[in-house]
Structures are given as C-alpha cells and as structure tokens.
Amino acid sequence: MELAIHENRLGGTLPGCIGNFSATFKGLSLALNLILGEIPREIGNLVNLQVLQIHDNLPIPSHLGNLSNLAALTLSNNNLSGMFPSSLQNLQNLIYLYLERNNFKGPIPSYLGKYQSLTRLNLASNNFSGPMVFPMTGNLLYLNLSWNHLSGVLPMEIGNLKHLDTLDVSGNILEGKIPSSTGNCDGLTVLRLRNNLFHGSIPQQMSSLRGIEDLDLSNNNFCGEIPKFLEAFQFLEKLNLSYNHLEGSLPTQGVFRNLSATFVVGNEKLCGGMPEFELPKCVSRNSKSREGVHKLKLTIAIIFGLLGITLVATFLYLCLLKQKRKEPISSCLDDSLLNLSYGTLLKATNGFSSTNLIGAGSFGSVYKGLLQESGNVIAVKVVNLTRHGALKSFKAECEALKCIKHRNLLKVLTVCSGIDYKGDKFNALVYEFMVNGSLEEWLHPHLAPNDADGHSKELSLFQRINISIDVAFALDYLHNQCESPIIHCDLKPSNVLLDADMVGHVGDFGLAKIVLESTPDTRANMSSAGLRETIGYAAPEYANGSQVSREGDVYSYGILLLEMFTGLSPISDMFRDELNLCNYVAEALPQRVMEITNPVLLHEGECHNSSQDSLHKRNRIFQECLETIYRVGVACSVQEPRRRMSIDKVATQLHSIRKKILTASSLR
Ligand SMILES: *[C@@H]1O[C@H](CO)[C@@H](O)[C@H](O)[C@H]1NC(C)=O
Ligand SMILES: *[C@@H]1O[C@H](CO)[C@@H](O)[C@H](O)[C@H]1NC(C)=O
Ligand SMILES: *[C@@H]1O[C@H](CO)[C@@H](O)[C@H](O)[C@H]1NC(C)=O
C-alpha cells in the first residue's frame, strides 16, 4: 500500500494517526504541499516503509531510524541544517538517498561508506566538509557531492565503482591528481570535476572512458597536453577544459571540430586546433628542440674542444638509447608476467585434481589453482595434446593473444610450455580467475550446480545490459582496433566470464583467426571444432565453408544477445526445422515483447517506486528498451551476412538503451 499526495495543495498539519496505517504500508510521498508543523513521530511505526519522500521545505521527523526497510529516502531542498542526522545510520538497506540542497554541515559520516546497496547518492549543495565519503562498491551508479566544502583527494578507490554512470564533485576544494584508477569506471557518461584545485595531467588511463558524454575539468590546475584519445570519444557532447594550464596543440578531430561542444578558454599556452577557436599557430616543437641541441653542441664544442667531442658523442649515444627504449615492446607477453613451471602449476591445482576441475573446453581442461606464494587464484587451461587440432588451437590462442589487451577480454597471465614429470609434452595457458564463472551458468542455472552457499543465480536487467555492452566492446576491439583484425569464431555464453564486479570478459581464443590480407587460410573449420554447443551460435554461412568474417562473429553475438533477454537457449528443443531463436523473436515484435522476455526481468525493482504513474512510465520505457534490444539482436543474426549490423553500431545502440534504463530506474 502507498500514499502519494505530492503536488497537491494540502494544508494544515499531518495527523498522528498516520502511524496507525497498517504495517504493510510501503510508500509515502509528501513533496510539494503546504503542510505545516512537524511530521508526527508516529511515522516511526511504519516499519515496512520502503519509500519516503519529504522534500521542499518540510520538517523532518525524528524516529527515522526505525524504518530499517527503507529503500529510498528523499529529503531534498528542505533547509535542513546542522550535522547529519545520526538516526540514518540504521538505514542499511537504502538504495537511493537524496539529500541535496539543504544546509547540512560537518563531515559526511563514515557510516555512509558502509551502505552496500546504495546505487544513487546525492549530497549536492550542502556545507559538508572533510574528505569524500561514499560506498566503495560496484553498486553505485550515481554519485553527486558537488558544491560542498570537501577537501583532500579523489580516492583511488573510485576505480572500484565499475558501473558508475555519473560522478560530480564540482565546486569543492579537492586537490591532487586524477587517480589512474578512474579509467576502470568505463560506464561513466558524466564526469564533472570543475571548480576544484586538481592538478597534474589528464591521465592516459582515462582513454577507456569511451561512453562519456559530458566531461568538465574546468577551473582547476591541470597541465600538460590535451590527450589525443578525446578525439575518439564518439558520445562526447560537452567538453569543458577552460581555465587550466593546458598547453600544446588542440586536437582537431571528433569533439574538437565543434566549437559549441568544446570549451578551452583560459589556457594561455594552447595553440592550433580548428581555426574557429582562434588560437595562435603552433611553433613546431621538433625544429625548436633540434635548434636547441645544435646550439648546445656548438657551445660545448667550442668551450671544451676535444673533450667536447667526447661529450657530444656521449650525448648522442644517450639520445639513441632513449629512442630505443621508447619503441613498443613487441614480445607476446610482458616481462612482468609470472613465470610458472609445470611443478608450480601441479602444486597450485592439487595435482590437477578433479575437485579443482572447473570446466572442460574444446581442447583441454580448465582447473582452478591457488599460487601458494602470492595467494593469487588462477585458472589453468591444460591443452589436451592427444586431441586432433589441439596444438594448433593452442598456437592460435597464443598468436591471438600477442597484441591484445582490453578490459573486456580475459587476461592471460602466462603460457607454460614444457615437459611434465612423465616426460610428455605439456602446454598450458594461465588466466586470471573469474570469480563469478561463465555467463552460461547465470543464464541457465539449472544446468550448473548451485554455489556452495546455495545462491540461485539471477542477473538483473541492468546487469544483462552491462554484460552485453562489455561483450560488444570486446568484439569491437578485436575486429576494429587490433593491428590485424581478429575473428573470435566461438562466441557463446560459456566463453563470457564474469569477474567479482560482474564485468564481462570474453575468453577462449582457441578458434580465433587473425585476418591477414596475405593469407587466404581463413576458411572456417567448424568440422574440426565440431562441438555441439558451438552449433546454434555459428553463422549459417560457415556450414558451407565460407571464410570466417566479422559478420560471423556478429551473428553469434546477436544470438547471445537474444538469449540473454529471452532466457531461451538457441539449442533448446523448441527450435527445430525452420524455427530458430532469431525468427522466433522477429515474429514477436513489437506486440509480444513482454511475452517473450524472461519473466524474472519483468517485475524487477517495482517496490522502489512510489506512484502508479511512475511505475507505468517505467514499464513503458523498459518495454521500449527491450524492443530495441531485440531489434539489435535480430539485425545481428539475419541470414545474409552483408545485412548484419556492425559491432560498433551495436555498442552505440546498447549504450543509449543503458542510459534510458538508468533514467527509468531513477523515476520517483
Ligand atoms: C491509533 O491507534 C492507537 C492504538 O491502537 C489508538 O489509541 C489511537 O486512538 C489511534 N489513533 C487514531 C487517530 O485512530
Ligand atoms: C566551462 O567552464 C567555465 C569555468 O568553469 C565556466 O565558466 C563555463 O560556463 C563553462 N562552459 C559551459 C558551456 O559549461
Ligand atoms: C556540436 O555540439 C552541439 C552541442 O553538443 C551539438 O548540439 C551539435 O549537434 C554538434 N554539431 C555537430 C556538427 O556535431
């Protein structure tokens, strides 16, 4: 039961009998009324209350601490002053907390950092001082601490907020550098740090924030050059770098082409850029420094004569050395990688025991292992060399992994190739261990044993969208951003692994093909791969021996996307003869969108909304989003390869759906 009497002209005082409402009372919204006087303390009896909205100049009841089931609390714009109410510390189940535009002062209480479920926190426009405090878990989507008096640095732990969409800390007195871990928050669409005392350069790691739309670093002390990667941010609509100490040439591509989207005034040493910006021309740095070196050499030679020649030689030698060091390291894996022997792996996996076995893939078995020395958990794929094609697959995977590095690809720690104790050849790949297993186990939990703690696994709509974007980013990287395009050839839910923060990582490159223009040997070889589970995801043209292609991967992606939201496996018994997952979904559009959607997704989060109106609105948006997702999935898995959508376009569309859902789930 709920009572929403906001936006009326109710006057008088609120009667105490409000506390006699039944214990099943779930929502109360009193915003924008003319109610006077205190809110009765009896409100504390409504122990099952989940949503409480009291904003715009209403006094706040004491006894809020009883409401431990509260999921959403809005006390915005109330002229509330003094220290932060300690009664809020019992509200550990809060998901939304909106306290913006009040006069709270003093430090943000540390207990707010322990609100593990919090997804949206808004403390903007108060007088909070002291360090930034926020829950450092992956659940937070929206964090607004702007226009307070917060000091100190932006904590490194900001990088734990893997799903953060909006971060606004403008108008404080924060200092220090932007931590490099900010690059982990690659779901960010809004990042505002304006009007603070931040310094240092814009970190290279921020190049992973590819979804950003609004980036405001203005009015700080940032220095150095404007990084080129900002040119590639295709969603960037507003970039404000005004009033810093940035220097060097202003880039000219992407957002920098648009005078009404980019703001750079107040950086005296900037030059170049599109003519519209009216910046001075850049003086070529090269000729300047060469001139400098020349002068230096001349002076040294004159003053020191013979000795000078020695010096110059040393100088040139050092330059050469420096240049050499700058060359990219082209070897397969970093030196920093662990070097693990057969013996270490044997120990780590308890002698490759069956209790450590976590999967049997196409060409080998995967074991979980614990490295005694470091305590790191790893996954070891031992290649089954007796199987035809296994060595080839091992080599393909090594080759594919040579150049690639992306946060949505499963990271290989090292390769172990040697002789085992029996004298046989032994080949293994060692990966990061992914705590949350594969997407397959989450989509079809009945196929896999439950967790030890008996958790039944269920992904939320939002998690599903995030994972589908992760996979699209990984494919886009493989197809379009590697030196030579890489075709994965075996995309399916069991090859998408989930880390502790439920971020998706594409793995298993055993069938991957690097497409080199010169080698015609890129025929699909599905007969040797010949695995049942691959069927259903493999593009139909592969059956006729077509060359592997990006379009083939996109087909698999489309099927995977449809599976994630319908909950139906493409190899389910219901799909036979002419009926497959793609045309099953296509026929249901647009009328039966909700009917074909996995029922667990339909009622998600409903209790957090206070009014029927917003519930209807939210459902409508969900339905629209699902329809778009299905259309993307169908457009990826049409029969004709040339008509399939390209993966970067897929990423763009899903990204905007994600945004829409975020907005919908914050309706109040
Ligand atoms: C509320 O309930 C209490 C105890 O059950 C009762 O004494 C009181 O009269 C009720 N108040 C109203 C306004 O109904
Ligand atoms: C850019 O930042 C400056 C300094 O903070 C501010 O004055 C200006 O209004 C900003 N421009 C836009 C369009 O937000
Ligand atoms: C330039 O930026 C503005 C503001 O973001 C946007 O409305 C406009 O469409 C952009 N123009 C072009 C040509 O991209």
How would you sum up this structure, described in words?
By secondary structure, the protein is of the alpha/beta class. Among the domains are: 331-433, Phosphorylase Kinase, domain 1, CATH 3.30.200.20; 436-665, Transferase(Phosphotransferase), domain 1. The chain is 25% helix and 18% strand. The protein has eleven helices and 30 strands. It has a twelve-stranded parallel β-sheet, with no helix packed on it. A nine-stranded parallel β-sheet has the order 5-7-9-11-13-15-17-19-21, with no helix packed on it. The protein has a five-stranded antiparallel β-sheet with strand order 22-23-24-26-25, sandwiched between helices. A hairpin with a 5-residue loop joins strand 25 (412-419) and strand 26. Helix 7 (550-566) runs antiparallel to helix 10. It starts with a strand and ends with a helix. Mean pLDDT is 79; it is low at 298-337, 451-455 and 516-533. Bound molecules: 2-acetamido-2-deoxy-beta-D-glucopyranose (NAG) (3 copies). One 2-acetamido-2-deoxy-beta-D-glucopyranose is lined by residues 237-238, 258, 260-261.
